[in-house]
Task: inverse folding
């Protein structure tokens, strides 16, 4: 039983699930830098720009974080629903919505347009949420 | 000694401040649950900020407020709880030793929820607690998880609380009426609990209002 569990934990699927979690943490960590600055009355663009660029780069890779076999069947602790792999076109659409939202965010950041940055922030969060609603297991 | 003997309408066991606290807390817990469940996090945060102020008031009242509201009176050791369970404890006004633990656990869990909520960030990254910008991303995730865990604990404690109150109510002790009107009929010889002077509310209200206002301001930036 334990040996089986260990074998599962080291399977390529489980490794991919763990890497995915690390990637999401990096992506969200960068998003927090942007959000924290936008909470201030005088946001620091020098802090926002590299974070937004990093987000843009990562959002493009996001679909590759979900190789087949990296769902719950891998034995990894993941909230990724099987629907991701049974409805790949729907999932890709959500991912591309995020990519275009994040690229708007990055463009506004590089331009230094705070008003558009704040609007893009809402668009990005809406895109995050739209995907989580359908493809992520919730707490309850 | 001033005892409760010969007062048919009962004696004042819960002062107005404690009763208002209780029912406001009920309203805010319901509001927090509804707004959290439906992802209305902008409103959820307002509820949380009010809740933080309310809990600050309760801590203040637990230190210097009416006698039955004070922690020093109702948070008792396991010996007292054991004697109470074996029916060997002299009756007293206010929480019994077991009920005191239940109240302390409820308040403690709500305090954990309020504190963790201040630092939590929702995973879609738009709504964040009023103090989240002062901590690392890792800590915000920890705070979010703690917030959810504490909620499950809170649900359990609320169920226990309701079951216990119902049991006493069926057993002939009108606990619900006492938490509404403040009065309760006590056995002969039970000492009438002391109330607190009204002016003592003022520092507590100022403190609670200050905390809620400060958190709300931090959120408006």
Result:
């Amino acid at each position: 039983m334990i040996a089986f569990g260990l074998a599962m934990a080291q399977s390529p699927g489980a490794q991919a699930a763990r890497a995915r979690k690390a990637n999401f943490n990096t992506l969200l960590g960068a998003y927090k830098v942007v959000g924290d600055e936008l909470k201030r009355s005088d946001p620091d663009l020098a802090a926002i720009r590299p974070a937004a660029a990093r987000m843009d780069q990562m959002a493009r890779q996001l679909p590759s974080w979900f190789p087949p076999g990296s769902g719950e069947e891998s034995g990894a602790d993941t909230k990724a629903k099987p629907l991701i792999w049974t409805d790949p076109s729907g999932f890709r659409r959500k991912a591309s919505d995020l990519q275009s939202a994040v690229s708007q965010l990055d463009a506004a950041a590089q331009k230094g347009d705070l008003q558009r940055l704040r609007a893009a922030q809402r668009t990005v969060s809406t895109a995050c949420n739209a995907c989580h609603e359908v493809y992520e297991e919730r707490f309850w | 000694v001033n005892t409760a003997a010969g007062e048919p309408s009962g004696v004042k066991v819960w002062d107005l401040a404690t009763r208002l606290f209780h029912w406001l807390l009920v309203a805010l817990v319901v509001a927090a649950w509804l707004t959290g469940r439906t992802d209305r996090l902008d409103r959820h945060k307002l509820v949380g900020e009010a809740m933080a102020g309310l809990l600050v008031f309760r801590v203040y009242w637990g230190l210097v407020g009416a006698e039955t509201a004070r922690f020093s009176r109702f948070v008792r050791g396991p010996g007292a709880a054991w004697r109470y369970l074996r029916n060997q404890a002299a009756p007293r006004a206010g929480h019994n030793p077991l009920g005191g633990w239940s109240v302390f656990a409820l308040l403690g869990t709500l305090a954990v929820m309020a504190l963790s909520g201040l630092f939590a960030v929702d995973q879609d990254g738009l709504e964040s607690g009023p103090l989240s910008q002062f901590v690392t991303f890792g800590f915000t995730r920890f705070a979010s998880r703690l917030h959810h865990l504490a909620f499950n604990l809170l649900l359990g404690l609320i169920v226990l609380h309701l079951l216990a109150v119902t049991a006493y109510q069926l057993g002939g002790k009108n606990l619900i009426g006492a938490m509404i009107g403040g009065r309760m009929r006590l056995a002969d010889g039970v000492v009438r609990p002391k109330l607190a002077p009204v002016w003592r509310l003022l520092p507590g209200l100022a403190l609670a209002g200050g905390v809620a206002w400060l958190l709300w301001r931090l959120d408006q930036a």
